[in-house]
Prior knowledge:
Layout: H1 3-16, H2 20-34, H3 41-56, H4 61-81, H5 85-106, H6 114-128
Helix pairs in contact: 1-2, 1-3, 2-3, 3-4, 4-5
Amino acid sequence: MQSKELRKQIAEACDQFPAQYAQLVKPINEILLKIDGGISEETADMIINNIRLYYLGDKYIADCHLEESNNFLEDALQNLKNGDLSNGALSLFGAGLNFASFASKASGSKEFDAHKMLEERFKKIKDTLK
């Protein structure tokens, strides 16, 4: 499925499940839809599921951001390895933005080492793109 269709499905989920997480996703998704920003089917499905789970109270918002960060990192690495530099850069930016959102929302309520997590991500980027 093409990115535009996937992003339209994300927009529909945001309208169907209008909670805080959907309100954060919706404007970014609209921008990326407008500029035809790529997204994998796996990542789109995960975002749609997270929007629904958060709305139902079955998932913590920080966990949504962390999962989104992880998926965008995978998308970025795949895009960059395939020579799709623009979508790779967009996905890498999304991975960082969502990691920062995770860290700020989880701080004080979860035990985690943000620096260790960043080190692992930086290493993964370096090792994958050598």
